[in-house]
UniProtKB/TrEMBL annotation:
PROSITE patterns: HAMP, HIS_KIN
Domain HAMP as annotated: residue spans: 191-242
Keyword Metal-binding: no
Protein name: histidine kinase
Record Gene3D superfamilies: 1.10.287.130, Histidine kinase-like ATPase, C-terminal domain (3.30.565.10)
InterPro entries xrefs: HAMP_dom, HATPase_C_sf, HATPase_dom, His_kinase_dom, HisK_dim/P_dom, Sig_transdc_His_kin-like_C, TCS_sensor_his_kinase
Subcellular localization: Membrane
Primary location group: membrane
Length: 450
């Protein structure tokens, strides 16, 4: 199985298991090393204490010879093969050996020097390994003569190894059990933590099957932005589907009239030229209807996923083109556009909206057009006015009416304002028609910035 096919919970569980195993393994090694170091240090302390015990039991006789008491404070020195051995030497000559070493030949280090200590691991016969401490002393006789002695105390390391092995078994037992419980707890935590993602997948499947329309709102704040964007995308797509559906229905309804006229002319007219003229008129009308409904259906509409576009840049490009088209009118265009006049919208929709408004202003003005674009909080305000004759009072209500169809538009306004009205409606904005300061029409548009 490829790693890319693993679920998030499986990946996290594998990662946590590896990290936990490495952590517990390193902890076990560290604790074991610490225990071995502590046990070895403790053994060396015991050996030094045994040295002091032997020194208290040693004395010189009248001949200046070192003799040891038979009653030693540590009973292991008197028990054969007890694992604790002692030996006193002088110039490579064994002066005394503990009864516990009976039957063993101890090859122990010699004098390390006066008041010096020397630790060494010594291998004996029969595979026995000893930890030995050699301690050098100088004994002064009654005559003032100084005699060098070396006291060797050795302890079998099997006891230390048994303690270490027992500690290792306990350590691995407890760490293994703790690791298993931590893995189980981590698995439960991961299931609980990743539950919202599982719920989101279930909700998305329900949306695919048609059981739900949107994701529910009961998600943690870390997923809130994601689910809100998904809901916004779903709403946007549903809105587009609805616009396509309505546009097709409106197109079918709008085509009935020109087709009926054409059919009637075909059935009743005998003048070929009159029939051709009527046919061209109705075909032009059908073409205009199709263009309008296609533009209406392709409008993106409000969506939180759209990137911000600059209204100032769009307006200046449109004005640059219109100045060339209406060059003979010598139109003076004044722009007041804020630097931060940005809106999250489809760039094509904004070109269509502003292009239609500005083209109308250039077309019906005498010589002046005034454009204002500014942002207030989360709203973009756009005003386009001209010094033309304005829109007749009887047509003002129809021109800005939302959803108004082309076949009932005010005379002379064409498709432009109908498209503008539909785009503004798709973005949940507002459009108002006022009397401008220049004397002509003034369109005021409000659009949500996001």
């Amino acid at each position: 199985m490829k790693v890319f096919n693993l679920s998030l919970s499986t990946r996290l569980l594998i990662a946590v298991s590896l990290v936990l195993t490495a952590f517990l393994g390193l902890s076990a090694i560290s604790l074991n090393n610490a225990f071995e170091s502590s046990a070895e240090s403790e053994q060396k302390k015991r050996l030094k204490n045994y040295i002091y015990t032997l020194l208290t039991a040693a004395e010189l006789n009248e001949q200046g010879e070192l003799i040891m008491s038979n009653d030693l404070a540590e009973p292991k020195f008197s028990i054969p093969n007890s694992g604790l051995y002692a030996q006193i030497t002088n110039e490579r000559k064994i002066i005394w050996q503990s009864p516990s070493a009976l039957g063993h030949f101890l090859v122990l280090p010699f004098n390390p020097g006066p008041s010096q200590e020397h630790y060494a691991v010594v291998d004996m016969d029969a595979g026995i390994t000893l930890q030995n401490l050699a301690f050098g002393i100088v004994w002064e006789t009654d005559t003032g003569e100084e005699i060098d002695y070396t006291i060797n105390v050795a302890e079998d390391m099997s006891t230390l190894r048994e303690q270490t092995a027992g500690f290792q078994r306990s350590l691995w037992y407890w760490l293994g059990g703790t690791g298993l419980m931590l893995l189980i707890a981590q698995w439960l935590i991961l299931r609980w933590s990743l539950r919202p993602l599982h719920d989101a997948a279930v909700d998305l499947h329900a949306i695919e099957t048609g059981e739900h329309r949107r994701l529910n709102d009961q998600y943690p704040k870390e997923l809130k932005q994601l689910t809100n964007n998904i809901n916004a995308l779903l709403d946007h797509e549903e809105s587009r589907r609805l616009r396509y559906k309505n546009s097709l229905a409106d197109l079918a309804h709008s085509l009935k009239t020109p087709l009926s006229v054409f059919r009637g002319e075909l059935a009743g007219s005998r003048d070929l030229n009159e029939l051709k003229q009527t046919g061209y008129e109705q075909l032009d009308r059908i073409s205009t209807l199709v263009d309008y409904q296609l533009q209406r259906a392709s409008t993106e509409g409000k969506s939180s996923l759209l990137a911000p576009v600059s209204l100032g840049e769009i307006i200046h490009k449109i004005i640059s083109s219109l100045d060339k088209v209406y060059q003979t009118k010598h139109i003076r265009c004044q722009c007041e556009i804020e630097r931060d006049a940005y809106i999250h919208a489809d760039e094509g929709d904004m070109y269509e909206l502003l292009g239609n408004l500005l083209e109308n202003a250039y077309k019906y003005c005498h010589s002046q057009v005034h454009i204002i674009a500014r942002s207030v909080n989360d709203t973009i305000f756009i005003r386009v006015e001209d010094d033309g004759a304005g829109i007749p009072m009887r047509a003002e209500g129809f021109v800005i009416k939302r959803g108004h169809r082309i076949d009932t538009q005010a005379e002379g306004q064409g498709l432009g304002l109908a498209i503008v009205s539909d785009i503004i409606m798709a973005y949940e904005g507002n459009i108002n028609l006022e009397r401008g300061h220049l004397g002509g029409a003034s369109f005021v548009i409000e659009l949500p910035r996001h």
